[in-house]
Each structure stands twice: as C-alpha cells, then as structure tokens.
Amino acid sequence: MSFSWNVSRRRAIGLAGIGVVGAASVGAGVVQAFASETDNSVAFAGEHQAGIVTPAQDRLHFVAFDVITKDRARLISLLRDWAAAAARMTAGRDAGEIGAVNGVPEAPPDDTGEALGLPPANLTITVGFGRTLFRDADGKDRFGIAAQLPPALDELPHFPGDVLDAALSGGDLCVQACADDPQVAVHAIRNLARIGMGVVSVRWSQLGFGRTSSTSTAQATPRNLFGFKDGTANLKLEETSLLKEHLWVQPQDGPAWMTGGAYLVTRKIRMIIETWDRSSLAEQESIVGRHKGTGAPLGRTAEFDEPDPAALPEGSHVRLAHPSLNGGARLLRRGYNFVDGSDGLGRLDAGLFFMAYQRDPRKQFVPIQRNLARHDEMNEYLKAVSLGLFACPPGVSDAGDFWGSALLA
Amino acid sequence: MSFSWNVSRRRAIGLAGIGVVGAASVGAGVVQAFASETDNSVAFAGEHQAGIVTPAQDRLHFVAFDVITKDRARLISLLRDWAAAAARMTAGRDAGEIGAVNGVPEAPPDDTGEALGLPPANLTITVGFGRTLFRDADGKDRFGIAAQLPPALDELPHFPGDVLDAALSGGDLCVQACADDPQVAVHAIRNLARIGMGVVSVRWSQLGFGRTSSTSTAQATPRNLFGFKDGTANLKLEETSLLKEHLWVQPQDGPAWMTGGAYLVTRKIRMIIETWDRSSLAEQESIVGRHKGTGAPLGRTAEFDEPDPAALPEGSHVRLAHPSLNGGARLLRRGYNFVDGSDGLGRLDAGLFFMAYQRDPRKQFVPIQRNLARHDEMNEYLKAVSLGLFACPPGVSDAGDFWGSALLA
C-alpha cells in the first residue's frame, strides 16, 4: 500500500487521457516544489485504523456528517465507496479517475483535482460512528443497529463551564483526515463529502493547522497556543502494553464489532489568548504546572522528568490530569491548534481542537474532565464550544471491506 | 538579517534565564522534527516590503485591524514597536524576551511562546493602510493625514454579484504574515495583536492553508479548490521591468510616501464547490479556459503555452482576465485556499482568499474585475463575501524605521 506519488497521482492523469503532455509537465515542476519528507504514505488497511497511533501528522481536516438516508443498503454502499477512495488517496492516488467515468468528459470528474501532483503526505483517514447513528434524536433505530450500541458510547455528561453549540457538536459519522500537507487533508475530506452527496450532509468541520501532540517517542513535543509544550505525558505508539490497557477495545469489553477499535472524544476549546497574554509568566507556569521554556514539570529540569503531583500547585493542569489522581486513566491525545478568524469582539477566534482516543471514555475522559472542570485554574482562559464522541471501529482489511462491516454487513 | 534559528529562538530561552537545561533540551528534539527547507529567513528591511514578490510561502495568516486610539503619537509608537518585533520574528527570534521584561517572572512574557524552537520558515510581515486610516467612516481626519490620502486608495466600486459582509471587509491597518509553517505565521499575527492591545482591535482575520499563486519562475504552479492550476500568468519576481510597470508605485504616481510601495486588494471568495463538483469535466475546462490536468490553455498542450484569447470560450475566465482584454493590465496575485468549517447548510465553507498587489487598482483590479463580474461563467460557482483595499508603503530601513514613516513621522 505504499505507492510513490509519481506512479500514482501522476499516472492517473495519463490514464485519464487528458493529454500526453500532461504527465510530463505535471511531473517536472511539481517534484521540485513539493518533494520532501512528506513523500511517504501510511498503510490504509490493518488490524487497527491508521491515524490513531500513527505519528501525529502536522495538519488536520475533521468533519462530522449527518446521515440523511434511512436506507441501510445505501449507508453500507457509501462506506464501501469511501473505503475504496480512502485506499487510493492514502496511497497518493486520486479518489477516482480525474478524466471522469470511462474517460467521458461529459461526466463530472471522479476526483476534484486539487491534490494532483501532490505526494501522499502521510495521509490517514479515520472513521467513527456517533451515538445518533444507532438511535437518532427521536430514539429511532434507522439502520437496525440499536442493539449493537456500545455502552461506552453513552451520552457524555455536561461539564460545568461548557457552552456547547449543538450545531458544532455530535454527528452520525466522523472522518478525521491527517496529513503533513493541509491541501492533501482537505482534498480527502472534500472528495468523501462529494462521494457522499445525497447520503450524508456536512454537519460541522474543523481545520487544525498544527499538531499539539506527539504519538511517538520519535517526535518532538509541539506547543499549543498558550505557548506551552503539550502532551508530554501522552500515550505513544511504542508503548504497546499501555495501548492494550488504555487505547484498544479488548474482546472482553464488547460489543464484538468494536474489538480493536477505540473511542474518540473531540472538544473544540476556544482559548481566551488575549487574557492569557496579559498574565505573568509565573502565573502561566503555575496554572500549567510546567516551565514554559523547557516544558519541565515545575521544580524539575527537563521535559520528560516525572512530575511529582503532590509538589505541584493544587489547581495546576498537570497535577489535575495526572493518572495518579484519576484512577490511573490515560489518553492518547491527538489535538490540533486552530484559528477560525476573529470573534467580532476584536479578538482572534483561536484555540485547541482536542481529540483523545481511548478504550472507554466512562473510565478515562469523563473522570479526568470532571476533575479538570471543577478545579483547573486554566478554565478561566478556556471555553469549550463543541463536543463529540465517536466509536471508531477496528481497521479495514484489504479486499472490499469497510469500516464497521462486522456491525452492518 | 539571516540568523539561523538555533542562535535565535533557542538563544532567547537561555537569555531569559528560564533554566540552563532549557536551551539544550529544546534544541535536541526540535531540530529533528522541524528542520527542513523552511529553515530559511527572508530579509525584513529593504527598498520594498518583503512578502510581495517574495516567493509565495505555503501558509498565510492575514488580519485587518481597527485603530481604536485617536492619538497619532500612540499610532506611531505602535508601528515602531511592530517593526522591531517584525525584524526579530522574521529572523526566527521571539517577538521579545520570553522571560518577560528584565527577566521578571511577575510580568507577562514579551513573547507568547508557541513558536519557540521553530525555524524562521521564511516568515514575512507586510503592512498596509486602509482608506479609513486617513478619513474614518464619519469623514474625520483622526491622524492629520487626510491630505496624504492616495487617489489610488479610492473606494472600490460595487461589483455585481458581491454579497459583502461589512464586518469582514475594510480595516484601518492590515498585516499579512506568510510563512512555510502556519504556526510561525499565526505566532507573528498573535504577537502583533498582543503588542497592539489598547491601540488596535482585530477587525477580521483569515487563515490560508495553501498558496494558489507562484510569484517566482522557480515555483511550480499550485492548484485552487476548483482543482485547477491557478496564476500561471502571474507577475513574477524575475520580471523586474514588468514589476516596475505593473507593481511598484513610481515617483510620478504620488503621493511621495507611497513610492516603492504597492496597493493590495483582498477578496474572500466562497466557492460553491459542491455544485462545481457536479459539473462535467468538459464544462469545468470551458469555464476556466484551461485543461484541468496540465493547466494548458484549451487547444494548447503545455501549461505555459501562450493562450489565444480569441480562440477561448467567450465567457471563460482566462479569456476575460487576459491583459489584451483589459488594457494590458496585470496583477501580482498572492492568494490562498481556505476552509472555514461548514456553512450550516450541509456544505464546506471553502474557497479562495484572493490577494493581488498592483501599482494602481483603478487601472488594474477594477477594470479586470468589472469584466469578470459581468461575463465570467465562473460566477455561478463564486460568492465574494469580503473586500479590502490597502496602501502598502515601501520597505522599512534598518534603524528604528517603521512602515509609513514618510507619511506619519
């Protein structure tokens, strides 16, 4: 599954018969401009979905869809078409031939074209199912799967301080596209939306311009918009026994179709950066519980020094989120910084699009967030406006398989 | 002006005294993750502002500010502070010492921190003045500069089809930050906004995730969200005599303080991509006037083949924008693709943030856009929601100079 781009998106142009000169001229200039470390691809098929423990790519496009059909067969057919397109796009190919069906120029193209000539850029496409897919707002079981609703997909409780926008929350399906080139991530989401016309409708969508977590020990810890290193204590792909304990749904957890999957919590957190920027360095460090420069826990000297929660300020974020205060719970975080323009009040609309994968949110995200919502001194500078919870099934196998085939097929 | 990052943002941490281990630990991991071709810096000072003919960087953060002081001295002081911070940041340094004024942790930091350890990433910071800086909405000359208002900064006419949002249009000042790393661009805008607290207020702001123009013959032509190569016929930095004719304000143009500057038109254009994606390849190519795969003008074979406007469809974009139909007018375009989430109607809110620099918009942007607004078949798929016009003064010289010093000092 690891085609290099020059036998993929470039070849696609040739095959579509757009012109013999096409392949050559697209090839020449584009290599020079775009070839880089992003010239790599991530395998699409596997036991687990890619895009969870995959070393966090630099850019994100996330979308939540409402399913607008009531026809189970159409839903299955869409998931099958999406999987086929995802396998192509993650390998650096187009979603379908640019030259349109059978090369007929009178038909719309099967790929929108904006990623032509771009490398795979480590694109991953990760799909999840919301609670409303199983039982809609009226309690209706549209697709005959309500009996398969995982208890871990329970509605999340209200957290004090949250001011959620319902139009930016929830969704029947979600797709996370991560890539090192944002145009590649946007292209993936846009083509899945195009393929889904008439079956799904975009509910909300979020771009993230920079990762705020590392999911591998080989990655440096990035910084969030508070200016601090974020996710130092994150679960990492190398920690396979911790991943079994905290990330992947195990056979004994049930339902069976979720074995090898994980639950994703999304939370769009607006940061009141103008107020933060007026607070002193000492106060910022006391609120976070780490030094701003090095990322070391307060009182320690290096980023990866173990924090001693008891020695940190009581309301500090690192202390409150520490596993020792949350029954040992840990998360695999995969958040991104965002700026969505301005807020009409003279301020940037900026913050963190938090994403965390886990084995059971009832035992992980919920207790941690309850603790933070009550005591975190950082709350003064935060406003959560969107919340989502999705069951991400295990990986797709190679041949004609699709996400949730064990649930739906 | 070309410090490498490891004697800049890294050194800043050491100087601020955050901890002796800081410099070493920030250094190690970050180099591995981020060092790349973006490890370069662009000179800040010069005859012209950087960020106009500078080879278009991959990412954009653009902001328009309202000036909320009536005090000319405070405005001048802000521009001077901004120039000092811009000189530091474009060299890959912090906006001011992270350890706060004189290393006092009880003061807010002079840099917000999220770019610590990141390379200069070819950051450029380009500043422009809106018409309302000279004469506000009530016709008031707040800063005693109304007599210096350039005639070329005339209010733009209304173009048929535009549905402009006043809150997303205009502005007293604009700042364009371009960089190859979006976190570096966001950091620059955010710190200028922080420095400007009490003097300016964010009016609107726009992120662009991918460039849609090349401004150098060394760059490959990128694609817009219609999937087509965009800006093939753009003015390029190598074409120095064309730049003199079409881009840089000349001494005979007046006013004197604008000599060596240029006028910037910004236009946020929502693309109705869902409708576009349902149109046939043949129709798309006929509307654009180019082949989708190669970017060649219709009927020709290679991207840079000269189009014959008379041979192109009458309502095609390339024909209507061709200099031969617009009195020879040309533009230096510097647009970016954007996705701003979704529109609440089941669609992505996506499009092009158009930016074009020029010597005189009355002779360039206005006639070209009039022609396009009337006849362009692409209009069916476009909706302009924001418009801006800014006078970007010449470059800043090294020592304590600032943008528009010849106008304001």
TrEMBL record, chains A, B:
Q: What is its EC number?
A: 1.11.1.-
- List the Pfam families hit by this protein, alphabetically: Dyp_perox_C, Dyp_perox_N
Q: Which InterPro entries match?
A: Dimeric_a/b-barrel (IPR011008), Dyp_perox_C (IPR048328), Dyp_perox_N (IPR048327), Dyp_peroxidase (IPR006314), EfeB/EfeN (IPR006313), TAT_signal (IPR006311)
Does the keyword section mention Oxidoreductase?
yes
GO process annotations (BP): iron import into cell
Q: Which UniProt keywords apply?
A: Heme, Iron, Lyase, Metal-binding, Oxidoreductase, Peroxidase, Signal
Q: Does the keyword Signal apply?
A: yes
Catalysed reaction, written as an equation: heme b + 2 H(+) = protoporphyrin IX + Fe(2+)
EC top class, as a word? oxidoreductase
**Localized where?**
Cell envelope
Entry note: cofactor: Binds 1 heme b (iron(II)-protoporphyrin IX) group non-covalently per subunit.
Essential cofactor(s) = heme b
Q: Where is the Dyp-type peroxidase N-terminal domain?
A: 49-209
Q: What's one GO MF term for it?
A: peroxidase activity
- Residue ranges occupied by any Dyp-type peroxidase C-terminal domain in the UniProt entry: 221-396
Q: What is any one of the record's Gene Ontology cellular component terms?
A: cytosol
Among PANTHER family, the record links this protein to: DEFERROCHELATASE, DEFERROCHELATASE/PEROXIDASE
Q: What is the similarity comment for this entry?
A: Belongs to the DyP-type peroxidase family.
What does the UniProt record say this protein does? Answer: Involved in the recovery of exogenous heme iron. Extracts iron from heme while preserving the protoporphyrin ring intact.
Protein name in UniProt: Deferrochelatase
This protein's species is Winogradskya consettensis
